[in-house]
Description:
The complex is a heterodimer of chains A (534) and B (260). Chain A is mainly alpha-helical and 534 residues long. Chain A has helices at 22-27, 33-43, 49-58, 66-100, 103-110, 114-128, 131-142, 146-171, 175-182, 187-223, 229-238, 242-269, 287-308, 328-332, 336-365, 371-384, 387-394, 402-428, 436-443, 448-478, 490-499, 503-533.
Amino acid sequence: MTPVVTAPRPGHCPWPFQPPAAPLLMLLPALVLLPLAALLPGLVHGGGWELIGQFAAAALTPSLDPVLLGAAFTGLGVTVGIALLGWALSLALGLVGGVLSSRTIWRTLLAEAWPAELIRRFLAVPRSIHELLWGLLFLQLVGLQPAVAVLAIAIPYAALVARVVGDLLDALPTAPLDALRNAGAGAPGALLTALGPALLPGAFSYGGYRLECALRSATLLGVFGLGGLGTELRLTLQSLQFHELWTGLWLLLAVMLLLEGSLRLLRRRWGMPGRFGLDARGVGRSGRELLLALLALLPVLVLVARALGVNPASLLVWQALPPFLPNWPVVLALPWGSMVGTTVLLTLLAAALAVGGAPLLLLFVAPWPWGRLLLQGLWALGRLWPPPLTALLLLFVLKPGLVTAALALAFHNLGVLGRLLLEAADSAAEGPAAGGAELALRCAGCGPRLALLYGRFSGLARSYLAYGAYRADVILRETVVVGLVGAAGLGTLLLEALSSFAVDQLLALVAVYAALTLVGEDLSDRARRRLLAS
Amino acid sequence: MPPSGLPTPLLELREVTVPGRAADRLAGVSLQLRSGERVALLGASGAGKSTLLAVANGLVAPASGAVLWEGAPPARSRRLRQRQRARIGTLWQDLRLIEELTVQQNLNAARLAEWGWPKALLNLLQPLDTAANSAVLREVDLDPALLPQSVTALSGGQRQRLAIARLLRQQPTLLLADEPLAHLDPRLAAELLALLLRQATAPRALLLSLHRPDLVGGFDRVLALRAGRLVLDTPPAAVDPALIQALYGAGPSPWPDEPR
Lengths: 534, 260
């Protein structure tokens, strides 16, 4: 063969630096650690290191007092029950909402897609308001009862499920549907046959993930007094009863890991896509088994509702509200610019810390045989531990403010992102080309950290960052929950307006908050599409 | 220097045994590979060729027996072992290129064992070592203008050559190749084999597993495995149809100590 050789073009890259390569993109968000490292010494007040030490040490000696254990089990039961009911209701409503917001469905039924657009816009509003806000609003309206927490989870979750189901339906290939319609099948029958089985794997994989989220949300609602173990956790933390606190935490951790493990097994058994592969398609192997499992869930839900004393009718009996006397000049005079700016900054800081922190930590522990286990434990705690409680804990040693709130949010989201990254990295190590490029690099003498960076992160970078963009959107919604540490964003004022019955401020704040989260959702969608397309 | 006066083998296996399923096992394999030697490894599918290469590059640790690289066993210290492995280059059947990186970054990835973090990170930001990378591309008959290209833009043949270039960029003394010619058309297979044989001159040595006995002509020695046991170590001229039939045939083994 005649070699085709041309001389190298000296300096063929006009700019000394090319765009960062894929694996480096994953680490770029972690650059936020540099300014943070400069800021942190000024924020430390140093008073509570001893308390932090006591808190950590108590992890090994949780209280085993029978009375306390009994209370913790009861609280846990309430939290799990609320999560289960809220999730089931959101799934039922979300599936209906998803079908109604699918363009394909409306085009097949009416040859028009405008009703889908209308419903999508309508569903964007409940989705944009965090479950904590829904919970606190209902609490003001109907008083404390289990149905409040259930509904608070069900409403935003249903809107989220509806969006995902609608998107999944619209992304399904329409050729089988067209073929059935051309063969003379009626629209409803053709839709059910052509789209139903194809929708199941994606929809139920996402549904399973929402159950994990519902457990975390139910714990969070408890922290704000809406019942369950969260209330115990907050009270024991505030009264510095760390041994008692860890009793509840370990129980919650066990339930969460059990749930996550069971769902992972079911996803595999039913051939459903993993979390990174939400856009993957494929028909589940055991649709009938899955439907039977869902049917078996129905009596469980009824029993749980009865045990918790959930009474939907009680939601219709509203408490006497103070008269609505709006004072719009005061509302207009609120520092909107700084509030929105702080909320956005808080979101970006927390998102960068979480997105950049997970791969950085994974690289850090790569050479240690027990490193992954350590991270799994740390990330499980992060997922479990509601951000307001992390914020309270951080207040032992840090001054309240934006950075403290961002650290609390970042720790929670690091737990979610870190677990996904680890799962994705491990699933890339399965199959016939197990380990692939990473293993090849190790065999060539490359160290474990660089082999992970080059060999594994290269392939994961874009889908990880796309998920990170989605997570940033979630963090924006979550900023409200760290309002109690004085992060000075919209969340702080929202909580103040709620507790002081300032309905005019509350309406304006909720509207701005919803608008902001919708803009954030749009930006995150665009970023995600760009990352996955390139 | 060993007592015989011969130079220390680059690779030595002593009674290496790897238990496992039929296709994964090795049973008491001993061999030596010296600088400048080009050795073909034959055997039917499942005979243990890939396992032998995996033992040779340190990917699989034998259950018993010893592996020596340049006369030394695998070092206990991670850093020292990395240095040992940096001198062993493997050409993988599925190439294992990093699809998301450029040709230049892939070539430089072969130097990561020698580089520290700053240079490894800089490689992801700007073109590094262009002259050295151009030189290895020329050695495998590739145009250095491909350096800034993404690996995904290369043709099948170019990818094969790039994998060999990356191997050369690593500057190993021991070259291992696991069925590198499988799934290639006859012309490309012959070209790549000639290229590999050309590169495997002293101080290097080459151990290449093959599924085509007709291509052993250019090698110095031919080894053959059957059911995990090394049954043949012969010059290529001795490989005749009867031997091939004995190696790949389903009939009874002509080698008496082969386990049934």
